[in-house]
Design goal:
The protein has 406 residues and is of the alpha/beta class. 34% of the residues lie in helices and 17% in strands. The protein has 13 helices and 15 strands. β3, α6 and β4 form a beta-alpha-beta unit. The protein starts with a helix and ends in a 20-residue tail after the last strand.
């Protein structure tokens, strides 16, 4: 369906989507295609009655803010759960408007049992659980009597009234495809790792890119620690020939550095390079990361500029252990989970509603998934800075700002 919709021009897609009758199953796909192109929805998604919040809640504010009365937070113990919890609680205590009564539940004994206890205790909204396994188990239940904002995606879509919010690698692959297509870069060579995260990002990138007329003309999956990837890179280049105007990367920092230095000697032209945030894994040393200069990747808003309700990201790791390394991303994710709990009804009932979050611009699609449009950063002098909105860079820029935590 997405591939067929991709063949329509903007005007045809908009008019035919508007002409679909209410409740037509194609509308959720057409609506997602419109949003990907930056076009407005003709009407809200048909989500059923489950999205109307309890009438016992006070009316929504003018901006759609309508938090639950009693909110349950379902998270596991351990470092990952702690980072999400700290971000959630920071946003909760920074909220100057009416806040819900908050109760926390440990999912160590199972998410289904924790959810049942939250319902028994009278909570009218649940945030969590966090792991893919727990989310899948909870969404597999025949009925969820209290709506849920799951902090991952399961095998099945959430029921009406509930939603899924995640930081999945698939989302970054899609974001990279949209970034390239938005700059009219329609032919790319993909260079990725062999790990599961890279594979998932590549599959999503390839699909999203093709849906809008993009073409992966060469592809190589790197395995091993290198250091010489020349033969593999030349193989991908031979497949593409001269048919490429960008390079897509889904690599950790160490192999990405090696690839960046070997692209010219392998015969690659100087074209824009777009990566997923996987490139941050194992990075953070400016002296080494200078090899990554000019590469763009999707970044969280909070890690690039001040964000209302959260402390400055720079040096946060020294103040709060849970935000060190990758914990900073989970911290921002937790903060947005709290924000979404108050705006979910507005996102569901208004066709083009969005919320500016610490992780990016947040919207709700017709399948019940929170869609995140990230900000973009670029490596410069081994550090990262906000990327401009113009053409993707071919040469490293030199207006450096330190990456938060380094």
């Amino acid at each position: 369906i997405p591939r067929l919709l991709a063949k329509l021009d903007d005007a045809t897609l908009s008019s035919r989507t508007a002409a679909l009758p209410a409740g037509h199953p194609l509308y959720v796909y057409a609506g997602r295609a419109l949003t990907a192109r930056g076009l407005p929805l003709p009407r809200p998604y048909d989500r059923g009655t489950g999205w109307q919040a309890s009438t016992t809640r006070p009316p929504a504010d003018s901006d759609g803010y309508r938090p639950p009365l009693k909110l349950a937070l379902l998270l596991p113990t351990g470092s990952i759960g702690s980072a999400v919890r700290d971000g959630f609680m920071t946003a909760y205590y920074a909220d100057t408007r009416r806040r819900p009564e908050l109760h926390a539940y440990d999912t160590a004994q199972g998410a289904v049992a924790a959810y049942a206890k939250a319902v028994q205790d009278g909570n009218d909204f649940v945030v969590g659980p966090l792991t893919r396994e727990d989310v899948a188990a909870l969404l597999a239940q025949p009925e969820l009597t209290v709506p849920v904002l799951a902090l991952n995606r399961g095998a099945s879509p959430p029921p009406s009234g509930s939603a899924s919010f995640s930081m999945a690698p698939e989302d970054e692959g899609i974001a990279a495809a949209q970034r390239m297509l938005g700059k009219n870069l329609r032919r790319a060579i993909a260079i990725t790792g062999s790990d599961d995260v890279a594979k998932r990002a590549l599959a999503a990138f390839r699909d999203a890119y093709a849906q809008r007329g993009g073409e992966v003309t060469g592809e190589v999956v790197l395995s091993g620690a290198g250091p010489d990837y020349g033969a593999s890179l030349k193989q991908a280049l031979a497949s593409a020939g001269d048919r490429y105007d960008a390079v897509f990367l889904a690599l950790k920092a160490a192999p990405a550095r090696l690839v960046a230095t070997q692209l010219p000697t392998a015969g690659f032209r100087a074209v824009p390079r777009v990566s997923t945030a996987l490139i941050l894994s194992g990075g953070g040393t400016p002296r080494l990361d200078q090899e990554l200069d000019g590469i763009e990747y999707p970044e969280l808003t909070w890690l690039l500029r001040p964000f209302a309700g959260l402390p400055d990201a720079a040096g946060m790791g020294a103040k709060l252990a849970s935000t060190r390394g990758g914990g900073a991303r989970l911290y921002a994710f937790g903060a947005d989970a709290y924000r979404l709990s108050a705006y979910l009804e507005s996102l569901a009932l208004k066709p083009d509603a969005s919320v500016r979050g610490a992780t990016g611009e947040l919207r709700l699609d017709g399948f019940g998934n929170i869609q995140r449009t990230p900000d973009w950063a670029v490596f410069s002098g081994g550090r990262t800075r906000p990327a401009g909105d113009g053409a993707l860079e071919l040469q490293p820029a030199r207006q450096d700002v330190p990456r938060p935590g380094h």
